[in-house]
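Forum: Protein Structure Q&A
Topic: Joint prediction for protein chains with partners

I've read a bunch of threads here and the consensus seems to be that you should model interacting components together rather than docking separate models afterwards. I'd like to see that in practice. Below is the full input, 412 residues plus whatever partners are listed. Could one of the regulars post the assembled result?
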Amino acid sequence: MSALATLLRRDLGLLLPGGRGGAGVLPLLFFLAVAMLYPFAVGPDAQLLARTGGGVIWVAALLAAILPLEKLVSGDLEAGVFDQLALRGVSEEWAMLSRLVAHWLAFAPLLLVATLPAAALLGLSGETTRIVLLGLLSGTPGLAAVGLAVAALTASLKGGAALAGLMVIPLAVPILIFGAGTLARPDASGLLLTAAISLGLCALAPLAAGAAIKAARES
Amino acid sequence: MQARLAASDLACRRGERLLFRALSFEVESGSAVHIAGANGIGKSSLIRILAGLLRPFAGTVENDGTMGLVDERLALDQNLPLGKALAFYEKLDGCLDPGRAFDLLHLGPLMDVPVRYLSTGQKKRATLARLLNRNCPIWLLDEPLNGLDAQAVAIVETLVAQHCGSGGIAVVASHQEMALPDVRTIDLAEYAA
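Posted by a regular:
Agreed with the consensus. Here's the joint model:
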C-alpha cells in the first residue's frame, strides 16, 4: 500500500500541470480554443450556439484528452522504470492503476473548471452547463482509462502518439454517445450509463495496459 | 544473507534466432558468476531471463531471495536532481540510510545535479548506488563497467567482492574482464545454438 502511495506521488509529480513530464496545461488551452473558435465558425446565432454548444464541449473534451497520451507511458517504458518496479514486486497492473489516477487528476479537474468559461463563450444556460459538467465528471474517468490503455499499447511503436490518437476515438464513442446524450434527455439515466461505462473501463484499463507493457518486453 | 539462483536447461529465442540453449547452472550464497561472450550472443537476454523480465524459450529459473538489476537503462527521472530521483527508489526499497552508498560511489557532490546532465559513468554509478541501497542478496549486473573510469571500476570490483563475502550472489554479464574473487565464468559461446 505504501508502495502504491509512493508510486502515485511520483506519477502526480510527472503528470500534473507544471510537472516534469506531462502535457501541462496544453489540453486545457486546446479545449478553450475549440470553444472559442466554434462561434466564429458557425456565426453568432445565440439559439444555434446554445443548442449545439454542449455537444461541442464534449467533442473538445474528448480531443483534449488525447493530447497527454504521447508521454503517458512511453518515457518510462523506454527508461526501464517498469523493469525496476517489477523487480520490486510492483506489478505492471498496479503501476498502471496509479498512472490512471494521476492521468485523470492531471487533466479532468482542470477541464471541468474550464467548462465554465467555455459554456459562457457558447452562451449555454445554467441548466445545460450543469448537465455538461455532471456528464464530464462521469465520462472523463472512462476517457482517461481508454487513453491509458491505448498509450500503453502504442508506447513501444515509432510514431505511436499519432496512432494512439486515432485509436482512442472509436473506443471513446460509447462515452460520447451516452455522455453527450444526457443533453438531449436530461434525466439521470444517461449520466448513470456514462458512469457505468467509465467504471468498467477504469477496471479493465490497468489490466490491458499492464499486459501491453509485458508484451512490449518480449518484442 | 542466504540466497540461491538456479537455471535449468534455459534456451533463449529473440525473433527468429535461437541465441543459446541447454544452459544450466546454479549459484549458491557467496559466489559470483561471470557471463562472457561476444556482442549479441545473448548476455543481456540471459540477465533479463534471470530477472524474470523475459520469458525463456525453454527451461526454468528458480531463485531464493530478492533480486536487484543494473542494466544500460537508467530508470531515473531525467529532469529531477539525482538525489530526488534516487529517493523514489529508496522509499520503495525501505532504505533508511542511503548516504553510505553515495559516499562509496562518490556521488555526494552530484545530488543536486539534474539526471540529464550526468555523464555516462556518473549515471552508471547512480544505478549501482540504487542497487546497494536496495539491500538485496541477488545482484544481476549487465555490463556494470560500461563508461566507468579505472578508479570506479576498482570500486565496483570491491563492492561486488564485499557483497559476495557477506553471502550475496552476483551474476555479471560483461565483455570486459572483471577481477572477482571465487568467480565462475560461463562462456555463452559454448551454448550457442
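The radius of gyration of chain A is 18 Å.
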